[in-house]
Amino acid sequence: MFRQLYQAIIFLIIMSSMLWSSCIKKEPHNTTSTTPQDTLSQRVLMVCEGSLGNGNAELSVYYPLKDSCYTNVFWNANQFYLGDVFQSFTQLNKQYYLCVNNSDKIVVCAKDNFKHSTTINVPKPRNILQISPDKAYVGSLFHNKIHVLNPSAHQVSTSIDM
To answer: Where are the alpha helices (DSSP H) in the chain?
Structure first.
């Protein structure tokens, strides 16, 4: 009985030391929170939806050729957060349309420097599909409607009941 208890304790000590020694926090290379100044053609935009109810959604940019990651680029360009639950984004007419569904809005910002242009009020926007330069469809969470967006005028022109 004593021998089995002794072996179990030794086993737990070995396993816990292996567990603790394997926990190494690795940070990405060249991570910075400033807004990127260059306009490299290859970049990856990353959506961080944030914590539900906290309004801390954010946009980050990764440049694979430079192995650099820029976090909080929207906040750094505008000094305010996007809102609550950043769902998706779409590029329309050289601007990014950022769907922030729990804040009931689409935030429009410049493609090159992420400066805020305007905000379009849409209930629970999820995704945007561009149909033409002057027409895009916006899906809505919890609503049986498709909103028709005019990107040139930055407004919802009508909605389609489903």
So the answer is: 2-22, 73-78
Percent of the chain scored above 90 by pLDDT?
A: 15
* CA-based end-to-end distance of the chain: 70
Instruction: In whole angstroms, give the CA distance from residue 61 to residue 14.
Output: 41
CA Rg value for the chain: 23
- Name the one residue in this structure whose structure tokens are 């995704």: 127
Least confident of 28-42, 60-74, 106-120, 142-156: 28-42
- Give pLDDT tens digits for 97-137: 999 988 899 999 998 889 999 999 989 898 999 998 889 99
Can you say how many angstroms the Cα of residue 118 is from the centroid of all Cα atoms in its chain?
Answer: 18
Torsion of CA 24, 25, 26, 28, to 10 degrees: 180
Tokens of 74: 């929207």
Q: By the 8 A CB rule, do 30 and 36 touch?
A: no
CB 108 within 8 A of CB 67: no
